[in-house]
Fold this protein.
Amino acid sequence: MFCKGFSAVVAGTPRYFEFGLDRSCDMKTMWAPWRMEYILGEKDEGCIFCKALSDQDNLTLYKGHAALVVMNKYPYINGHLLVAPIRHLSALDQMNKDEMGDLLETVEKSVGILKKTMKPDGFNVGLNLGKVAGAGVEEHLHFHIVPRWFGDTNALTVFADVRVIPEHLLATYNKLKPYFDKMD
């Protein structure tokens, strides 16, 4: 069974495109209005990862030789970390093998720390390359590490315009920081 078409916004106007197929199913829209705070919010000048290297930022957990770890200021859930190379790079093919190895090792160690401290049931780990792929900071490559628990409540964000983050960002930072201080 095929749906009859799809909706899109063209030149600022919602449009519906027909395919002449089965009309028995309608496309549903899922809203995530909480993202507007990030999308439309005032942007700091410069790269957040480069700033994290120079500032005494309360969200930076680790600064290594080739990689750094910061907490996501707009997390999907507690423990949402960002792991970036020290060098300001926007693509994987700009990294040398040592940097790539260090970056992935930092991702691995970060997952280990989250396993030990937060005991999640799983993880989403990935990177978004390019704005169209969802990169909010496309000029500085970075991995997202998102811990996941059975029954976590991230669906509330979509269905009820509510995001449940059970622990304050700085409390999570204080829980994680001693473990990141022991890295290397």
Observations:
- The chain has two domains: 1-30, 33-181.
